[in-house]
Amino acid sequence: MLPTVKCPNCLAEAEILNVLTAQSNQNVIYTCPQCHYEIKDIETSKG
Prior knowledge:
It is built from one helix and five strands; from the N terminus they run ββαβββ. It has one helix at residues 16-19, and strands at residues 4-6, 13-15, 20-22, 28-31, 38-42. The strands form two sheets. A three-stranded antiparallel sheet has the order 3-4-5. Strands 1-2 form a two-stranded antiparallel ribbon.
């Protein structure tokens, strides 16, 4: 079982692989599958 992420907008939970998209600049984009809320350019420990 993969870790889940809770949407800060609608509080829906989804598996991490279904909500995070890696960018070429080492940042990620979060997109909620329920309400389509999006957070761009989330910095990672490498970015």
